[in-house]
Amino acid sequence: MFANKKQRKSLWNRHVVITGGSSGIGKAIAILAAQDGAHVSILARNVEKLDDAFREIKKYIVTEDQIITRVPVDVSCLEAVENNLLEIEETIAPIFMLVNCAGFAACGRLEDLTERDIKRRFKKRREGIIVMTSSVVGLMGMFGYSAYSACKFGLRGLAESLIMELKPYNVSVTLALPPDTDTPGFENENKSKPLETKLMSEAGGLHKPETVAKQILEDALRGHLFSYVGFESFILTTLCIGMSPFSSIIELIIQFILLGPLRLIGAFYIKQFENIVLKCFKNPNIQEKKD
Ligand SMILES: NC(=O)c1ccc[n+]([C@@H]2O[C@H](COP(=O)([O-])OP(=O)(O)OC[C@H]3O[C@@H](n4cnc5c(N)ncnc54)[C@H](OP(=O)(O)O)[C@@H]3O)[C@@H](O)[C@H]2O)c1
User: Fold this and answer.
1) Is-contact 49 61, C-beta < 8 A?
2) Domains of the chain
3) Mean pLDDT of 106-124
4) Ligand 1 binding site (Cβ under 6 Å of any ligand atom)
5) Mutate to test the pocket of ligand 1, among 19, 25, 207 (most ligand atoms within 8 A of CB)
6) Quick one: DSSP state of residue 207?
7) What parts of the sequence cross the membrane (predicted)?
8) pLDDT tens-digit readout, 176-205
9) Cβ-contact 85, 69 below 8 angstroms
């Protein structure tokens, strides 16, 4: 919303690598990239899930020449990832877009492969796109997400620093801020989600992975820093804009005008969240009643 219309890059015949591409948002991005004519490599741990996703993604290729590859690897093992990436670059093509989607809500793993050799290779080629998957709780803290939120906040710092470091090399960085999205990962997360967190998230609704993936891909191809879905995420992203880079004067003016009024709307949400926490604290039986 209100983002400037930068020229959209093409994925045709380009190589897109997606960590976490066997499920949820990552798989939805892989399918869209295949539909756009890209070679797609997906990385994840579970071989069966990778095989299923591989077969599904293959159905969406638009030319015979497109190569779809699956790589069983744990992204927390950087050395194994590096070796695998080198191999697929040699056999397919240099990586044009790297989408970091591997992760889960109970955080605690390295979710990012942009440091070290990947960054060096993008710099050498003087083109490329890096996508990091954060979350709306990468912009604001929320009950029940303390560890997860800390990791996702960190990705913003990493993304903004990388943008400066990579600007002279024509490499863009996009930070995806998905809202609640209907994926196997989200279903899993719900099993241990505190009632307070559920009540706070209810208002935001549940989004389809295809919608979120489409927005991420569009924003990444247009070189936007933030990728968000929905009006509430627009409010939050604008409110938290701080010292983030801006992509046009129009965008800057809109942020300048909206920041004050949006602070009031934000304060209303914060009060509501605080009320939920107090209500649940005073009525410990509320969880059982809800179940
Ligand atoms: N869904 C949401 O509501 C939501 C909201 C905000 C942000 N996000 C973020 O979006 C990203 C994707 O979430 P999702 O809901 O699509 O999750 P998902 O359906 O659980 O998919 C996660 C993917 O990551 C892979 N993965 C996890 N750990 C890995 C590891 N150590 N090494 C390699 N692959 C690994 C999984 O495959 P294996 O398990 O086989 O390795 C799977 O392919 C995550 O970073 C999540 O935090 C999601």
Assistant:
1) no
2) 15-264 (3.40.50.720)
3) 65
4) 19-20, 22-26, 43-46, 49, 74-76, 101-105, 109, 111, 133, 135, 178, 180-181, 183-186
5) 25
6) B
7) 129-148
8) 999 999 999 999 999 989 999 999 998 788
9) no
